[in-house]
Amino acid sequence: MEHLVRVYNEKDRQTLEWLRRHVGDAAIATAVKQCAGQGKPYLSTVCRRLGVGTPEFSVAALHASSPIAEKSLATIRSILAARATPAKLVASW
C-alpha cells in the first residue's frame, strides 16, 4: 500500500499497518482516490477521509538504535571532541 500514500518514517509505516488491519486495503484505496490533489496523499489525509484516528505507538519501537547509527554518532563525537580540544588550550592561556 506504500505505493498509494506518502510514507516518510517508521511511525507512518506502523500507522499504515494499523490502518490496513482495521479498515482494509479496499477502503484505503477508495479514500486515496477521493483525496484531491496531485501525487500521493499524506497518510493523515487518508485517515481523515476515512474518519479514523490512529493510536499512539510506543516511542521505544520508533527509536530503535542500529549499529550503523551508533558508529556514525561515535565518529561525530570524536570529530567534535577533536575540535573542542584546541579551543580549551587557547582559552587557558
From TrEMBL:
<protein>
    <submittedName>
        <fullName>Uncharacterized protein</fullName>
    </submittedName>
</protein>
<dbReference type="InterPro" id="IPR058891">
    <property type="entry name" value="CPPA"/>
</dbReference>
<dbReference type="Pfam" id="PF25860">
    <property type="entry name" value="CPPA"/>
</dbReference>
